[in-house]
Design a protein that fits this description.
single chain, alpha/beta, Aspartate Aminotransferase, domain 2, four-stranded mixed β-sheet
Length: 277
Amino acid sequence: MGRRPRAVRAAAGRRPWQYRASREGALIREVRIPSPFQSEQQVVDLIAAAITPRTRGLAFCHVTRGGHLYPVKSLCETARSQGLVTLVDGAQAVGMFPIDLADLGCDAYSASLHKWFLGPVGTGFLYVRESARDRIRSLFAFDATREAPAFDVPGTADFPVRAALEAALRFNEAIGVDSVARRTRYLSDYLRRRVGTLPGVTLLSGPTPATSCPGSIIFEKQGIDAMALIPVMDEQHRIHIDEHQRDSHNAIRVSTHIYNTTAEIDRLVDVLAAIEM
C-alpha cells in the first residue's frame, strides 16, 4: 500500500460531513472516544451524552483504523430510541468477521472491499435499510423515490473490476468468514504476546474480543517514531507495517490476515527488538 498524506487519509470519512457543514451550515459534533476504551458501555455512554434535541444522525466506524471494535448494535439501538439515523463505516470490518446487517440495526452501512475482503481497489458497497430510504438521499438523483432511491453512480460502470469481486467472493466463501475470524484472532493474539515481551512496548488495542477486532493491533515502543520506522522496515527488512499517529498516539499498526504466519510475526518482533533509531 502506498503512503498518502495522513491528513487526507484520516479525513476520508469526515469529508462528506465537512462538505455539508461548509455548504449548508450543518453542525458536526465529534465525540472523543478514549483509545483504548475500557468497555462497550463506555462508548455508548459517551456518544449518548453528546446527543442533543438538534441531533439528526450518528456516523461511526464498526472497526476503527486502530483496531478498536465499536458496539454497533447498542449504538444503533440508542440512536433509534431517539429517532436518529445511523451510518456505519465498515471499511475495516467486512471480510474479517461475520456481519449481520439486519441484527446490527443500522440505517446505512458502507465499506470498501480492497481491504480484508481482498477485492480489487475501487470497489465497495452501500447498504441502506429500506425503512430509511426516505431519510437518506444521494446527490446522484434529484428525483429519487423510496422505491427507486438511485444510490448508485449514474453512467458507465467499471464492469471488469466488479466482475473481479466474484473471484474474491468465491475465495472468501471457500475459506469461510468464521475461519477467517478465528485465524486472524489467533495471529493477532500471538502478536500481542510476542510484542508484549519487548521492553518499552505499550499495547494500545483493546484487551478483550468485545473491544478489539480480530486482525489489527497498535502499540507504541519507547524511543521509536512510528512514521520514521515504516521506510526502515520496508526497505531494509521487507516488512510492511503502518503507523497510527493519531488519538495522541505514536503507534505502530500491524495487521495480520489469514495468509500471514507466526514465523513472520517472530521475524517482525526480532527486528523490533534489535532495531535502533
